[in-house]
Design brief:
six-stranded mixed beta sheet, single chain, 8 strands, alpha+beta, two-stranded antiparallel ribbon, 223 residues, 19% helix
Amino acid sequence: MALTVSDSGGGDFAPCPEGTHIARCVRVIDLGMQPGSVQFPEPRHRVQFVWEVPGELVMLDSEERPTLLMARYSASLHKKSQLRAMLESWRGRAFTDPELKGFALKNVLDATCMVSVVHTPDGKFANVRTVSKMPRGIVAPGRMLDLVHYEIEDGHNAVYAQLSEKLRATIDIGAGLVAAPVQVAPTAPAYDTQRRGGELRQAVASMPPVAAMPDYLDADIPF
């Protein structure tokens, strides 16, 4: 069965630098039904995309290889889905009604794009912010890595065997072969009203008079 979506209602490497990069999709991995979070507990069908960035190389086993970017999306082309917004930006046009009835995700394999990257506040991870169509006149470098396409119905085949241990474990959860880890909501610290009240009174007492407030606090927010 082809991995399609529809409108139905690693290593210790430095992260890819922030900014916009030429990239090429080299992996589309079906993750199956993944558990939700504490805030959104409903399981969702998820899919992972991996792009190679030929302009940012890393050394691995004495060989230069492209940096990789990864993003996961719910496998849906609903009008509010992040996957639909990403794919339409990548394609440079909206989906037609016939396409919304079933779009094979393997079609994006080997397709080039421009990827905007931002880092997490601690600088340890690179997140894909946007994926857009290649500008006219810009030619992407040739592909460096093999293409990988996996569907959850494929089971433990040769493609599955070459994936990382962590990714295989995620797939096994999505396939229902192993139990998902239990999500536990963080426990809020006890609220000490007396201490909090004292801190608030101290903060208020230390505030300057209104006349001493800088003028820029009254300026319009520019966005």
